[in-house]
Specification:
49% helix; single chain; 290 residues; eight-stranded parallel sheet; alpha/beta
Length: 290
């Protein structure tokens, strides 16, 4: 599954939810947690039966970020399940057992509704969670893993500066890759969305590190993420040259060859194939102008 961009929309704002599908994001996250005032959380949950289909009308998968507090977690998860959400964003996950308990709770409900199991994206937002990231990434239903920059910095008594967040976010990223799941995120906080140049540089950096995509809290960042996590024309052309040279070398029985003056071996060929696969399979969600 290719997801380059995930757009958060507050579940308490119907206008934002209605427009979410038209913003070009590969996935939508309806937020019941940080973006919703405490007094509005129950109403936002009760609105999921309408807001999930509204957000999904362009064809993008819809996640719901639930509240991790004991008084809300299960009710939020159940409401998202009944509304037809694709998956859950689960905050402040510190152990795989938390995901196992949610999966056990949802399984009989999903069976009764005859729907596919909800996929999970655990948000790792504490030092303990970072140290358990490998186990969390291998837990049931995990589609992707991500780190919450602001909460992570706060839990460390630190500022959410890139040099603070880089190491823990890389550890979370490595855990995702080791488990064979997607890795979402930037090596900085996403809160300062008005820093367009900084966000563009961070997205390009994350792609270089091998992240698969990232979330954002403002639609202006969606095209930046889509561009950064998509192969450029020059990358595609390079990959095509590598594959063509590899096919010719195979026909001629040669094991070593050069492309653009650089030595090519099996890992580089695999990288070229991955570039072409990403270029071919990237999502094309509908917008309200289509």
């Amino acid at each position: 599954m290719i997801i380059r961009s995930l757009l958060y929309v507050p579940g308490s704002n119907e206008r934002f939810v209605e427009k979410a599908y038209s913003r070009g994001a590969d996935a939508i996250i309806i937020d019941l947690e940080d973006a919703v005032a405490p007094s509005m959380k129950t109403a936002a949950r009760e609105a999921l039966g309408r807001s999930v289909p509204l957000a999904a009308q362009g064809g993008a998968p819809v996640f719901v970020r639930i509240n991790a507090t004991p008084d809300r977690l299960r009710e939020d998860a159940e409401a998202a399940c009944r509304a037809g959400a694709f998956g859950l964003y689960i905050p402040k996950v510190s152990s795989p057992r938390e995901l196992e308990e949610i999966a056990d709770f949802l399984e009989p409900l999903e069976r009764s509704l005859k729907r596919d199991p909800l996929r999970f994206v655990p948000l790792i937002e504490t030092p303990g969670g970072v140290l358990e990231a490998a186990a969390i990434a291998r837990a049931p239903r995990v589609l992707a893993v991500s780190g919450g920059g602001e909460d992570l910095a706060t839990s460390m008594g630190a500022q959410p500066a890139p040099q603070v967040l880089s190491l823990p976010k890389q550890l979370i990223h490595l855990a995702a890759k080791a488990a064979g799941v997607l890795s979402f995120g930037l090596l900085r906080t996403v809160a300062d969305y008005k820093d367009i140049d900084g966000m563009r540089a961070a997205a390009q950096e994350a792609r270089m590190f091998g992240f698969d995509g990232a979330s954002c809290i403002h639609p202006s960042i969606v095209p930046i993420l889509n561009a950064a996590f998509s192969p450029s024309d020059s990358e595609i052309a390079w990959a095509q040259r590598v594959i063509a040279a590899d096919e010719q070398a195979t026909r001629e029985g040669r094991g070593a060859y050069l492309v653009d003056g650089q030595f090519v071996d099996a890992p580089i060929v695999a990288r070229a194939r991955a570039v072409l696969a990403l270029a071919q399979d990237k999502p094309t969600p509908k917008t309200d102008t289509e």
